[in-house]
Amino acid sequence: MSEARKTALYDRHVASGGKIVDFAGWALPIQYEGLVAEHTAVRTEAGVFDVSHMGEVDVKGSGARDFVQNLVTNDVDAIVDGQICYCAMCYPDGGTVDDLLVYKRNNEDFLLVINAANIDKDFAWMQENSKEFAVTLNNISDTISEIAVQGPKAQEILQLICETDLNKIPFFFFKEQVIVAGVECLVSRTGYTGEDGFEVYTANDNIGLVWDELFKVGEPKGLKPAGLGARDTLRFEATLPLYGNELGKDISPLEAGIGMFVKLGKENFIGKEVLAKQKEEGLKRKTIGFELLGKGIPRHDYPVLKDGEVIGHVTTGYQAPTVGKTIGLALIDAQYAEMGTEFDIQIRKKTVKAKMISKRFLQKKYKK
Questions:
Q1: Backbone dihedral angles phi then psi of residue 56, each to the nearest 5 degrees
Q2: Is residue 201 part of a domain?
Q3: Total structural domains in the chain?
């Protein structure tokens, strides 16, 4: 653990009993009192996550809009200033570089929020593809800390230390120069749990103040610190993809099931030609939801079999705390992707029956 990087909140995690693990080179809490308790708190009251390991890149210049439009699959012209869109970045062969959030300040100023494990790779990719555009890229990841306040009571609790009326920040919008716990922050109505909530960005030196004040007002209302374990089960129940599981360099956004964020009707973007061909010819692989009919946990990369033949692999699987079933996502040959189809999951040395079900495991509770 001595080699792992520490966020500005590391000492607070240790003091709160956080079990620290190495995640993408960062020392982060996997859990505090327990995954299920933290998961349940977010679904029923509120939880807060340290997500300071995420990456942030500023994109500025007269060519910023053209650069971002070429870089990502979604259409940044479809959002207004102060709005956010979820996107993928693709390689020319249609594989996924990363999934990310694009914060649009205006057509000459964007903030891109990327995954922690991919920061160096993503920034190099952006630099490589920026040469033809009048744009300046600045990787500010090391200067920014971020927390996510999520759950039905997230707004009520955050509002107690926030000077801006949070009702004025709609879903997937953001405001800057917001005073939270006496310090200046960027606040967005976003998250990775399927619940209403906010993500708060501020300078490293300020995040401890925000964290401490949040718990001072929030603990009496049921606010709990939550670790990476609950973060993963929450996003999975809400069918939100994770890079390295549902998405990867060998998996296109269409295959991953996020085709709604791939706007093939807009001008050219990296990978568009291959993705358009995939859609026209029909996908050869699809991401599906399944329920395990026997005992076991279908973990990432476990083989999926039909009549003894491997037809794909599990991308994520859990005994889902809110859903109350053992469910999973799998990338399989498209010919078997029909609702109700039964197949086997290879769990260690045994095979366990599973059945394809809807990927809508849980009703999302975003405030729109």
A1: -130, 135
A2: no
A3: 1
DSSP 3-state assignment of 25? coil
pLDDT digits (tens, 9 = 90+) for 283-327: 999 999 999 999 999 999 999 999 999 999 999 999 999 999 999
pLDDT at 1: 46
Is residue 335 a part of any domain in this protein? yes
C-beta pairs of 76-83 under 8 Å, 24+ apart in sequence? 76/102, 76/104, 76/110, 77/266, 78/263, 79/104, 80/104, 81/105, 81/106, 82/173, 82/174, 82/175, 83/172, 83/173, 83/174
Residue 305 · residue 344 · CB < 8 Å: yes
**CATH number of the domain encompassing residue 318:** 2.40.30.110
Q: Which of 256, 235, 158, 129 is nearest to 191 (CA)?
A: 235
Residues (pLDDT < 50) of the chain are 1
Q: Is residue 310 part of a domain?
A: yes
* Alpha carbon 366 to chain centroid, angstroms: 15
CB atoms within 10 A of CB 298: 26
Token pair, residue 221, equals 């209302």
Domain limits at 305? 284-357
Q: How far apart are CA 128 and CA 271, in angstroms?
A: 15
Whether residue 71 is contained in a domain is answered as: no
